[in-house]
């Protein structure tokens, strides 16, 4: 089988040393098995924690996990900074796990928030809890919140259940030792000392939980139609929640209304809550309003990120104007908001296809965005054409300028004719690397690393080393001309000033292939020795920086 490397991504920020993929890992899933990606998180030592679904059997290094029966279980794993598995264990219930999210606190304790069915939930080989009997499988589910230490030892588990109660665990974030969980529910239930009171429609909820598993406060929405929270994040004090709703949605005295509620449709919501759980503002956005779905598709947010500088980013998808419940056409989108006022600053839209979406957002050292997601068929962003694959879905990585959402770099993740998807990206606290996580089928190549799996689906994660960041977020965007583009023998650069400039060319793997200084307004570079393909040209001066793509014929 021919291996095809399709990585065209460059971060566009300056680094003190070379950038490259450091490792690529996945469990080994058996024939007929199926594992999925849920969430990843990082501790301050660079260890990677993952939660995903498990069906039949998968091996994580030397540890093999089996999922009993015909229901989905969860795996919880830890890898060191080199990607080596430190532990892996399963979480399973006798009628399956329905939903789950995971987050670390500041002490690297691991919280798993989820829902399950049946009468018993197993948290480790020696720890389990029991639920009451009753309710058909799938018609009633139970809430649980489990806390583990960094070695995977269970510290405590809390549960919630009630007749005719249904819920989904969708969002989680942390501030210090406190955890914030969110999702949706139907019915009435007591959970973590808080009363989740039902209504005729499914309600969204946000709850603050202390380190002992006690609910500090609970916020439930007022609504009369479908709504659910999908993602949570925070700025160190305030909590932000995004999701989708149908008609109108209210927390406290803040109400958002779907402008297309009559005759119907769905929208994306974004709320800000203070540390006491009081709603500060609420906003709505979305694309076409042709149909409503309870899936995390169409007008739906999949990503939420705070940049540490007063701005908030929501990523996901809009319904396409030609979209229907049958063709599921949707546009990947990213919107920027002022976190203080809730004012929307811009929305970037990208080509539509079946379930195309932005799934994760990270902020680099220059406060620009690195986004991950998925596409099918052809995809163009910022003048960069990603490889076309009409057979199988592909993962993607894009670099967006924070000032206007313009795409400055993009790449495909995956092998042609084989399914791959990137679901999440996490930036290291010092901005020196990031981790991506997703799922692939059969095989996956990234840089010089290769994976193969016999299962229907296999989760993966990979580490990209950015080097030591040299922050340039205080520099203006530098304008310059590059010609001819495409080029053959030489490439010319013209700019307005003649101050000292550092000019570099980086290939599609992130390797520096040319570096020089210039004090001239016009600089000519001999590119005849470069192989044909796409490259990125970076110009840095004391006045600003600029990155442009060019093609070498």
CATH architectural arrangement of the largest domain: 7 Propeller
CATH homologous superfamily grouping of the largest domain? YVTN repeat-like/Quinoprotein amine dehydrogenase
Q: What's the arrangement of strands in the largest beta sheet?
A: 3-4-7-8-11-12
CA-atom Rg in angstroms: 24 Å
Number of helices: 0
Mean pLDDT: 90
- Euclidean distance between termini CA atoms: 27 Å
Domain count: 2
Helical percentage: under 10%
Give the oligomeric state: single chain
In the CATH hierarchy, what is the class of the largest domain? Answer: Mainly Beta
The shape, in one word, is: globular
Q: What fold name goes in the CATH topology slot of the largest domain?
A: Methylamine Dehydrogenase, Chain H
Beta percentage is over 45%
Largest sheet: 6 strands, antiparallel
Q: What structural category do the secondary elements indicate?
A: mainly beta
Give a concise summary.
This protein is mainly β.
Explain this structure to me?
The structure is a single chain. The chain is mainly beta and about 550 residues long. It has two domains: about 20-465, 7 Propeller (Methylamine Dehydrogenase, Chain H), CATH 2.130.10.10; about 475-550, Immunoglobulin-like (Sandwich). It is built from no helices and 48 strands. The strands form 13 sheets. It has a six-stranded antiparallel sheet, with no helix packed on it. Strands 27, 28, 29, 30 and 31 form a five-stranded antiparallel sheet that branches. It has a five-stranded mixed sheet with strand order 41-48-47-44-45, with no helix packed on it. The chain is globular. Residues about 1-15 have low confidence and may be disordered.
């Amino acid at each position: 089988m021919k291996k095809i490397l399709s990585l065209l991504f460059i971060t566009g920020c300056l680094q003190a040393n070379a950038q490259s993929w450091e490792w690529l890992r996945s469990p080994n899933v058996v024939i007929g098995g199926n594992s999925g990606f849920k969430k990843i998180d990082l501790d301050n030592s660079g260890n990677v924690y993952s939660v995903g679904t498990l069906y039949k059997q998968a091996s994580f290094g030397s540890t093999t996990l089996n999922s009993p029966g015909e229901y989905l279980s969860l795996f919880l794993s830890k890898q060191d900074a080199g990607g080596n598995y430190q532990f892996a264990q399963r979480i399973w219930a006798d009628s399956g796990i329905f939903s789950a999210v995971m987050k670390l606190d500041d002490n690297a304790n691991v919280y798993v928030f989820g829902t399950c069915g049946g009468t018993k939930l197993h948290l480790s080989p020696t720890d389990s809890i029991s639920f009451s009997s009753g309710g058909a499988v799938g018609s009633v589910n139970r809430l649980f919140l489990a806390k583990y230490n960094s070695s995977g030892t269970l510290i405590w588990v809390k549960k919630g259940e009630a007749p005719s109660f249904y819920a989904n665990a969708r969002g989680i974030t942390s501030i210090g030792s406190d955890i914030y969980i969110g999702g949706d529910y139907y019915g009435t239930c007591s959970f973590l000392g808080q009363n989740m009171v039902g209504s005729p429609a499914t309600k969204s909820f946000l709850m603050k939980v202390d380190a002992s598993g006690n609910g500090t406060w609970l916020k439930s929405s007022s609504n009369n139609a479908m709504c659910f929270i999908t993602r949570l994040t925070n700025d160190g004090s305030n909590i932000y929640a995004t999701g989708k709703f149908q008609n109108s949605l209210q927390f406290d005295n803040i109400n958002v209304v779907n402008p297309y509620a009559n005759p119907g449709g769905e929208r994306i919501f974004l709320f800000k809550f203070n540390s006491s759980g009081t709603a500060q503002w609420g906003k709505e956005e979305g694309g076409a309003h042709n149909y409503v779905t309870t899936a995390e598709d169409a007008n739906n947010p999949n990503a939420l990120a705070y940049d540490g500088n007063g701005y908030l980013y929501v990523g996901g998808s809009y319904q396409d104007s030609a979209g229907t419940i049958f063709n599921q056409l949707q546009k990947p989108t990213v919107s920027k908001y002022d976190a203080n006022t809730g004012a929307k600053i811009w929305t970037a839209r990208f080509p539509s296809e079946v379930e195309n979406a932005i799934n994760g957002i990270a902020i680099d050292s220059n406060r620009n965005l690195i986004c991950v997601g998925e596409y099918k068929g052809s995809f163009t962003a910022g003048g960069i054409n990603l490889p076309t694959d009409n057979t199988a879905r592909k993962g993607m990585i894009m670099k967006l300028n924070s000032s206007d959402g313009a795409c400055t770099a993009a790449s495909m993740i995956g092998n042609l004719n084989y399914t791959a998807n990137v679901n999440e990206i996490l930036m290291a606290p010092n901005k020196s690397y990031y981790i991506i996580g997703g799922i692939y089928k059969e095989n996956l190549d990234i840089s010089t690393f290769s994976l193969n799996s016999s299962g229907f689906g296999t989760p993966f994660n990979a580490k990209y080393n950015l080097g030591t960041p040299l922050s340039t977020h205080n520099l203006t965007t530098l304008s310059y001309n590059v010609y001819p583009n495409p080029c053959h023998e030489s490439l010319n650069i013209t700019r307005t000033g003649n101050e000292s400039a550092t000019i570099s060319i980086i290939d599609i793997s992130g390797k520096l292939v040319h570096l020089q200084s210039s004090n001239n307004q016009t600089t000519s570079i001999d590119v005849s020795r470069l192989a044909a393909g796409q490259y990125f040209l970076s110009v840095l001066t004391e006045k600003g920086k600029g990155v442009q793509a060019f093609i070498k014929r």
